């Protein structure tokens, strides 16, 4: 144990632990209020593991420059105050502009989450493809259904847990979410797995062992896109 911590009184240690719990709660609350962060990080990590760039910082810049979904923001300044910068992780538009994009079929897929609209523009995907890169979309089953209705030629991959019981153990083992949220996530996962079982995906990858799952992912990507090198 650190000497500085050892010198604290019992009361001071209690205050320190309480403060740690407050910070942890604040961080979790912020992440729960911004589900787009998990999507962004998941998308970036998937791209890093697939391409294994030597210059990670440069790769990160190119990645986030190329993939910019559009988000509703009628109040851009408060959103920027929270760290969401226009043109970095998102392109901000007004609600009217977003609806105009919806009506003109400018989105490959879109959804409304917590009062905000999120969409992946057809133009953004085409820009990635013109750079001879693989455009990876981290989307839910509603997004999959929308993309399947488009004329875009894409492969669909579903990453599944070994079983619902394993997923429940993982979620509860984290100890970061309230019971009602765990129950909701399990219900959503059950619906997604049922959807995947109906043959809507080109590949269902079971994430039982991370190394084995990743090796299988590399093999699948190499089969789908032989013009790219994945190892």
Automatic annotation (TrEMBL):
> Which Gene Ontology molecular-function terms are recorded?
GMP kinase activity
Q: Any keyword Kinase? A: yes
The superkingdom of the source organism is: Eukaryota
Annotated ranges, domain Guanylate kinase-like: 83-222
Pfam families, per the entry: Guanylate_kin, RIIa
For the keyword Kinase, the answer is yes
Q: Name one GO cellular component term.
A: cytosol
Keywords of this entry: Kinase, Transferase
Q: In its UniProt entry, what is this protein called?
A: Guanylate kinase-like domain-containing protein
**Upper taxonomic classification of the species?**
Eukaryota, Sar, Stramenopiles, Oomycota, Saprolegniomycetes
| Family designation | Belongs to the guanylate kinase family.
